[in-house]
Amino acid sequence: MQQHNVTPLSAAGIGRVYRVVRLAGGRGLERRLNAMGLIPGATLTTVAAQTHGPVLVEVKGSRLAIGRGMAARILVAPA
Asked: What is the pTM of this model?
């Protein structure tokens, strides 16, 4: 697996498709993200992201608003 293209979701570009590489959080965070469909290997599309506030992503046909702190712990790579 190539690690040089990995970036936090909070820094990902808008309108691009990414693959979740790793969740860099504790068990509680991983459980919560898994329940939302954000598991390693899942693909997502970034819909909107401002400098402050949540990151809006589309996963499996659903749109999710993810807080910046949580988005910083989701590591993604271009799909």
From this structure: 0.89
